[in-house]
Amino acid sequence: MTAEISGDARLGAGDRLLYLACNLGRNLAGFAPRVATRACPGVPRAGRGMSPARLYSDHFLDTVLPLLEPRCSLDVLEIGCGSGSLCGRLARLGFSGRYTGLDIGDRFDHAIVPGFEKQFILADATTWAPADRFDLIVSVSALEHIPDDVRVIAQARTWLRSGGLQVHIVPSGWGLPLYLWHGYRQYPRRAIGARFSSGAVVYRLGGALSFLVHFLFITTGEMLLRLPVRRRWAGFYDRLLAACRADASLGCVPANLYAVVERAP
Q1: Is residue 5 a part of any domain in this protein?
Q2: Can you list the positions of beta strands (E) in 133-251?
């Protein structure tokens, strides 16, 4: 396997080019098992100034997750939880129970969320051992930042109760030109097939229009040129983001993100 470079570190120009070359080669090469994908149903609702990735991630969580997990009361673990905003989203969707946020940095919001008992654990997911099992394990744009993601995915299977779900939203192979040097890797379908069980279900998130908007405004405008383009042209950007909702009607086009769902036996 090609050695992985962390795009989260401070990289010089040479290391940035090496990162792009290594990940491009890994995304295009190899014959590990492919996985079938399906479209995320429905049309996402755009919010002001959000990124296309946020648009589609939120849409998946709001529309597909309640169909996959009909139980109202859950023990939830979020890997790479950040502020823990997922807990509030779950509450708005009608879920309740216990929420555990796990992260290597503390940005956690301890504000009370009605219906949930919240806790935060400052720990590395590759070495942490939970005392209890969970009904639902979620990560949103977190696996690509974990050096040994294979170990975390395998460990998560042992952390789930029977019938529980692990759900991971990750950048696709097509995400490389969007995020450039970001995290350790992207996840083409071959990489997903090599990491998850044959029963995993994979949803395509985003498409050609959201790719173009992200590349022009966020990758080129904000990341490379350091211009506040979304703030400067907020109204124009929001109209373009709303137009990205048409990705859902374009059929089988390359996805910018994948949502991978694996259920425990």
Answers
A1: no
A2: 134-140, 160-171, 201-205
In a domain, 108, yes or no: yes
Bridge-based pairing state of the strands 257-263 and 201-205: antiparallel
48, burial (CB in 10 Å: exposed 0-12, middle 13-18, buried 19+): exposed
Question: How do the pLDDT tens digits run along the chain, 265 residues long?
Answer: 456 899 999 999 999 999 999 999 999 886 666 778 888 888 788 788 999 999 999 999 999 999 999 888 999 999 999 999 999 999 999 999 999 999 999 999 999 999 999 999 999 999 999 999 999 999 999 999 999 999 999 999 999 999 999 999 999 999 999 999 999 999 999 999 999 998 999 999 999 999 999 999 999 999 999 999 999 999 999 999 999 888 877 665 678 999 999 999 9
C-alpha dihedral sign at 211, 137, 44, 54: negative
Tell me the CATH number at 127. 3.40.50.150
* 241: in domain: yes
- For the sheet with 134-140, list strands across it: 37-39, 201-205, 257-263, 160-171, 134-140, 73-79, 96-103, 116-122
Structure tokens at 66: 């309640």
State the pTM of this model.
0.94
Instruction: Give the 3-state secondary structure of residue 5.
Output: coil
| Residue at 10 is within a domain | no
